[in-house]
Amino acid sequence: MRKITVIGAGTMGRGIALVCAQAGFHVIVQDIHQESLQKCKQYIDRFLETGSIEYTANLEDAVGSADLVIEAILEVMDLKKEIFKKIDQIAPREAILATNTSTMSPTEIASVTSRPDKCIALHFFNPVHKMKLIEVICGLETSEETIESAFAFGEKIGKECVKINEFPGFATSRMNCLIGNEAMFMVMEGVGSVEDIDRAMKLGLNHPMGPLELADLVGLDSRLRNMEYLHKTLGEKFRPCPILQKYVSAGWTGKKSGRGFYQYDERGNKI
Question: Domain-by-domain residue ranges, the chain?
């Protein structure tokens, strides 16, 4: 495995591309938006002194010779299936197709391809260059060879992999979404301030980041999509907190918009 293509130049895509380039892979980042590609390049250039990395809006150029394609687009099932169907038609027959989804079924995503045995979910965590874990989630037809290749890839980029059986939300997202959603209810109910709830989780339960700060980092719109999917698939306990829906409706999507549960300056620092 030498050539890695990352589809999507957003927060997760750029982080995945960075760690792959740092590990010595030849990386191509593809996104339909030139502005996103430019921001991705600016971000990666801050960390990467040497490395082989390209940026393109052309999907055929991006995946035509890839050994591994990692999709990191919005958490919308129809979009993921659409891009996997296209990638399947272009990528080499031996290429592995991976989704970076944090909640959705790799089996369903793989169902639109002619290679479900070579499809898998690789769930990275934000910020990718700091977080050590990759959740490896296998679809119904994912082969052992594909799983072994995924673990070898994770080791090459300095990550630890855990194998999780497919179920909505996997392991980490299921727990994390519940914790974050409960914290939002606590804010809405006046149990404590945003700052104090986060501080209590960090100091009392040894979490490195409070659940509300983490939700801002992930993006409240992304968190809402995840909660809606989990609510649909796992039931009432995952119903999104009304304050999350209200903030997203107002355009308060967290750190990337400058406002969520906290306010941020242009550099992303809390105000």
Answer: 3-165, 172-257
